[in-house]
Amino acid sequence: xxxxxxxxxxxxxxxxxxxxxxxxxxxxxxxxxxxxxxxxxxxxxxxxxxxxxxxxxxxxxxxxxxxxxxxxxxxxxxxxxxxxxxxxxxxxxxxxxxxxxxxxxxxxxxxxxxxxxxxxxxxxxxxxxxxxxxxxxxxxxxxxxxxxxxxxxxxxxxxxxxxxxxxxxxxxx
Amino acid sequence: xxxxxxxxxxxxxxxxxxxxxxxxxxxxxxxxxxxxxxxxxxxxxxxxxxxxxxxxxxxxxxxxxxxxxxxxxxxxxxxxxxxxxxxxxxxxxxxxxxxxxxxxxxxxxxxxxxxxxxxxxxxxxxxxxxxxxxxxxxxxxxxxxxxxxxxxxxxxxxxxxxxxxxxxxxxxxxxxxxxxxxxxxxxxxxxxxxxxxxxxxxxxxxxxxxxxxxxxxxxxxxxxxxxxxxxxxxxxxxxxxxxxxxxxxxxxxxxxxxxxxxxxxxxxxxxxxxxxxxxxxxxx
Lengths: 173, 284
Ligand SMILES: Cc1cc2nc3c(=O)[nH]c(=O)nc-3n(C[C@H](O)[C@H](O)[C@H](O)COP(=O)(O)OP(=O)(O)OC[C@H]3O[C@@H](n4cnc5c(N)ncnc54)[C@H](O)[C@@H]3O)c2cc1C
Ligand code: FES
Ligand code: FES
Known about the structure:
heterodimer; A: Ubiquitin-like (UB roll); DNA polymerase, domain 1; 5-stranded mixed β-sheet; 5 helices; 7 strands; B: Uridine Diphospho-n-acetylenolpyruvylglucosamine Reductase, domain 3; 5-stranded antiparallel β-sheet; 21% strand; binds FE2/S2 (inorganic) cluster
């Protein structure tokens, strides 16, 4: 017997009959075609699969699709719509614009997860230090950038969103 | 094979399901289940998802006690308990990564009570209690009985952990852990210390884990309590040295299998934690 799931993904109502053991990440990618959410490790380590569940960052390889029934999921495809239009930069969420401006990616594999985690942090902060940005991203692994450009990208977005960032030149990941 | 997924919305419904299907896998945040080998998932054909049960999100504050529902995530508990039960809030903030803290629950952590988990030492140091409910009623267990004598007190097949209770505003508290890559590994060692300043003469409670399961260090507690009453708020250097020695000896006596390097690091973490609560105790 399948399980019926009623959910909203990026604001769109979705109803599907699924197998109870299906992981959210495969539901998003295979059933809904939202391939912006990546699968790196499938074991809750790398953070590439991070999405929002009711506005909080979670690793979608560690969530069963059945658990999102009557909850709201946001993926990188819907990230821009989570901020008011006036805050968007050429249609992008300030975090997406920050990754573009500050070269926060190389291969881009980790990027959707990084952005979803960073955007949650910014949505819930008024003031941040560079160290706090680094701590918030501790569950997301990047094998390319060395992280500094990612932190700069988040700091760029923070400024655009009215979140003040203390400079901390000694911070290291 | 077909699978049943139950989503009770009331505690009564959840307890009925638990009685009817004792073999069903009970889950709340599901973070633990999802980190088991994927083959573990296929062993179960019935799941009871507790995350909708409204009563498990309840919280209330009494004069001396604060109660939080078992479905509180670490992230929510860390915010909620930050000023009233700081050692538990700090332990919640130390777990895994933000994504795990958003999903993993206090009830799941207590049910598992993994030997090297962050929460158990903090719960022991502050003297938390576990509220267990079945169709016939509720019982409240001191965390000590839960963590230290699990064979006698473990969750019965018809029970659900519904809440945790904490003495509130007792005095200075701190929690520290040590381990490789904090975001991905459980702590190698962790120490929690709470001064109960509500007593006529303040008492220091100390709990640790060194991967062996959390336990209280009674000898170290007596030493720190006496030192606190004699020395006031300034922790002199010698107290730290003596305390270090007592913790190391206690760990050696606790298990001969704890390597020396772990014992010495654990003792250093305990000293650091004591110094923090002590210096925080100016008002005592
Ligand atoms: C990537 C990762 C990193 C982690 N790092 C740490 C760490 O650094 N430190 C640490 O301490 N822990 C760590 N954990 C473990 C985490 O703390 C636990 O997985 C979590 O607390 C379990 O909560 P849950 O709600 O997700 O439990 P679930 O996975 O839903 O359930 C776990 C167990 O608890 C039982 N259970 C759940 N709720 C109840 C209830 N209300 N009543 C009765 N039984 C119940 C379930 O039946 C099951 O047996 C980590 C986990 C992950 C995935
Ligand atoms: S794919 Fe989910 S954490 Fe790596
Ligand atoms: S940009 Fe390649 S993994 Fe981060």
